[in-house]
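Issue: ligand-bound run for zinc ion - logging full I/O for the record.

Environment: standard queue, default settings, no custom constraints.

Inputs:
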Amino acid sequence: MNFCSHCGHKITFGEVPDDEHQRHHCEDCGKIHYQNPRIIVGAIPRMDDKILLCKRAIKPRYGLWTLPGGFMEIGEKVEEGAARETREEANATIENLRLFSIYSLPEIGQVYMMFLADLMNMSFSAGRESLEVKLFREEEIPWNEIAFSAIHFTLKKYFENRSNPDAEIHTGFHIKSPDDPKYG
Ligand SMILES: [Zn+2]
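Outputs:
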């Protein structure tokens, strides 16, 4: 952010009154431009012993597999966002959504909320952001080709708890380290 969206003056990053955090702010009109984490909503679409994954057709992590998900839009509830992303990326219909995992990426200010859901029928196909959409059994999951740590975490927890997946909400996080460059 370079210029104030309120008055067009140049933005400064630094201390502001009565706030322990440094903020982007405008020294001309005084407006503080808060930046807060963004929510990513997604689904674990299930059918029998299989779940639906999408192969990414976009950067980052082009060509790797993920669960359908994306940034929440203003005006929608979390479940609606997860169902919309599933529709957009996999042309698939899900129902009976319930919260399964919450995963924090503190350094980049993202929070994933992943919902367990029933895939309603076999009508699905690659949406604009997917190269391929496919149902996987546990033993078929391409563990080394999963796009994001949040998705890896969610899939692991799902298969560990598959006999009773509604029993608890799983929380996790990831902090970047030099030894683990793959996940951001
Ligand atoms: Zn301003």
